[in-house]
């Protein structure tokens, strides 16, 4: 009998204590809401936003009214009421001043910095949602944070999260009401409506993220069968498609392959790495943040090893830029040291390669300013190179018309039409007399003449250059050779560039 009496008493005491704690929490929330609204109203007033200041002041008065209901003897009430009274007077004074100024300058163009007042229905809808936003930003945020810290007195975490989710839903409904009112009032583009829309989105997102943290903290996931192989599969994909190709290409001596490694690494970091890191982090949040914890949770060692290997090998990729930089700088220095020794035909190509190497060197450098100024070096070498070419002159063509005609026919057929090149014949010049090219028992069996031929490839045309080759055009071997075409072969001597504009095609 005694137990039956005691138990109800205990339940009553517990209920009283719970109610007391809740009341204290509500009172603190109302105090914060009132002070926040007053501060926001004051800031708005000082910024000249009188309409917004009035709305915030109304929110403060509403919070104070609620506080009176919770605790009419609160020592904070008198202070809050004084602040409201003073701020109301300040707003009224500024409103009067603004109205007088507006009347005096009625003919002037209104300032674009001042937003028009919200229509009445939109203003009322905004007041309601503003109150809900403040509650989410303060009261309900605090409730969730107390659950996370273990300080909550509201019982099970699911109760709090469900309660706050209902408030998120209400905020969405109030935003819909605001949008409807603003649409009817033709005020959808009003700065206050636009700002409120963005604010609801932001606070909803932040609150939901906090709810997710609360749920995750209290969750005790069961091992998923797919998770037993998920990390191994992810590791295989990562190695095959990214890690191994990037690392292998980075060790190549070919600049094109090193460049490919660099671009592939950038692509990985930008497009793939976030997804892989997200999966790694999610796996750790379920089963533990080290190999041993994962093995204990799943009962197998392979998932934890794969999880660890992926992270280790991604760190390996992080070290690649500095390694690539060292190798690329070696290449760059070698290319620069022998720049003026390159043959004419390869010097321009070497300029292109130098600039490409320079870009990779700067991209991978911890201090890009330490990389030699290759563009300036290339510019100086190009000038010296072109100065040299400008000094080259084109000779006069010797020989009779038949010899010239035969030389031209041979050069077209055997040089311009050569499938191994993309030459265009610009001109030629016979520069000397016939000479013996072969003998049998001391007797001549073939003759040849010296010729300079000017040919142009597409890239040469862009630079205004022509390739010059020293040739000896040779007649057919015969017991009775003649110093006359046709020519059947040639030998090649030196080669260099000349300005294409100096080349002449001789008349036949």
In short:
This protein has 508 residues and is α+β, with helices and mostly antiparallel strands. It contains 15 helices and 5 strands. Strand 2 (435-440) and strand 3 form a beta hairpin.
Mean pLDDT: 84
List the helices and strands in order.
HHHHHHHHHHHHHHEEEHEE
Which term fits the overall shape?
Answer: elongated
The whole-angstrom Rg is 43 Å
The total tally of domains equals 3
- The tally of strands reads 5
Q: Tell me about the biggest sheet?
A: 5 strands, antiparallel
Find the structural class using helix and strand composition: alpha+beta
| Beta-strand percentage range | 5-15%
The first-to-last residue Cα distance is: 137 Å
Low-confidence stretches: 1-8, 10-23, 98-113
Helix content: 55-70%
Helical region count? 15
List keywords for this structure.
508 residues; alpha+beta; 5-stranded antiparallel sheet; 15 helices; 5 strands; elongated; disordered N terminus
Secondary structure blueprint with pairings:
Elements: H1 2-46, H2 50-70, H3 76-104, H4 120-137, H5 139-149, H6 157-184, H7 191-218, H8 227-250, H9 255-287, H10 291-298, H11 302-337, H12 344-363, H13 374-390, H14 401-416, E1 424-430, E2 435-440, E3 443-456, H15 458-463, E4 465-475, E5 487-499
Antiparallel strand pairs: 1-3, 2-3, 3-4, 4-5
């Amino acid at each position: 009998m005694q137990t039956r009496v005691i138990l109800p008493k205990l339940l009553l005491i517990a209920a009283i204590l719970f109610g007391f704690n809740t009341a204290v929490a509500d009172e603190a929330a109302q105090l914060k809401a009132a002070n926040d609204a007053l501060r926001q109203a004051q800031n708005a007033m000082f910024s000249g936003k009188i309409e917004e200041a009035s709305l915030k002041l109304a929110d403060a008065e509403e919070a104070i009214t609620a506080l009176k209901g919770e605790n009419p003897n609160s020592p904070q009430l008198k202070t809050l009421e004084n602040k409201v009274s003073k701020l109301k007077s300040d707003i009224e004074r500024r409103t009067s001043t603004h109205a007088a100024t507006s009347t005096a300058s009625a003919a002037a163009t209104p300032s674009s910095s001042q937003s028009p007042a919200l229509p009445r229905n939109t203003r009322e809808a905004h007041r309601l949602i503003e109150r809900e936003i403040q509650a989410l930003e303060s009261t309900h945020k605090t409730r969730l944070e107390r659950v996370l810290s273990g300080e909550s007195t509201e019982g099970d975490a699911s109760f709090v999260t469900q309660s706050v989710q209902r408030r998120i839903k209400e905020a969405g409904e109030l935003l819909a009401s605001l949008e409807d009112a603003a649409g009817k009032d033709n005020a959808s583009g009003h700065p206050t409506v636009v700002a409120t829309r963005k604010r609801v989105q932001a606070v909803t997102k932040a609150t939901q993220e906090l709810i997710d943290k609360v749920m995750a903290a209290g969750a005790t996931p069961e091992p998923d069968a797919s998770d037993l192989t998920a990390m191994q599969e992810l590791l295989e994909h990562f190695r095959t498609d990214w890690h191994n190709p990037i690392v292998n290409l980075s060790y190549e001596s070919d600049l094109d392959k090193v460049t490919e490694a660099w671009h592939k690494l950038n692509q990985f970091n930008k497009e793939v790495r976030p997804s892989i890191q997200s999966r790694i982090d999610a796996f750790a949040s379920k089963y533990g943040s080290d190999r041993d914890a994962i093995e204990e949770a799943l009962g197998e060692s392979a998932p934890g090893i794969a999880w660890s290997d992926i992270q280790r090998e991604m760190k390996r990729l992080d070290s690649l830029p500095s390694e690539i930089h060292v190798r690329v700088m070696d290449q760059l220095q070698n290319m620069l040291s022998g720049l003026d020794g390159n043959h004419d035909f390869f010097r321009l190509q070497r300029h292109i390669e130098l600039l490409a190497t320079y870009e990779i060197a700067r991209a991978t450098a911890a201090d890009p300013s330490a990389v030699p100024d290759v563009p300036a070096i290339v510019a100086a070498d190009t000038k010296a190179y072109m100065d040299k070419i400008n000094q080259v002159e084109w000779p006069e063509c010797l020989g009779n018309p038949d010899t010239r005609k035969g030389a031209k026919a041979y050069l077209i057929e055997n040089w311009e039409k050569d499938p191994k090149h993309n030459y265009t014949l610009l001109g030629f010049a016979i520069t000397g007399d016939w000479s013996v090219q072969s003998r049998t028992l001391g007797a001549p069996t073939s003759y040849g003449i010296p010729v300079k031929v000017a040919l142009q490839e597409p890239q040469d045309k862009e630079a205004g250059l022509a390739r010059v080759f020293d040739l000896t055009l040779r007649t057919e071997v015969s017991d009775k050779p003649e110093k006359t075409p046709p020519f059947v072969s040639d030998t090649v001597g030196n080669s260099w560039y000349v300005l294409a504009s100096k080349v002449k095609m001789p008349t036949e």
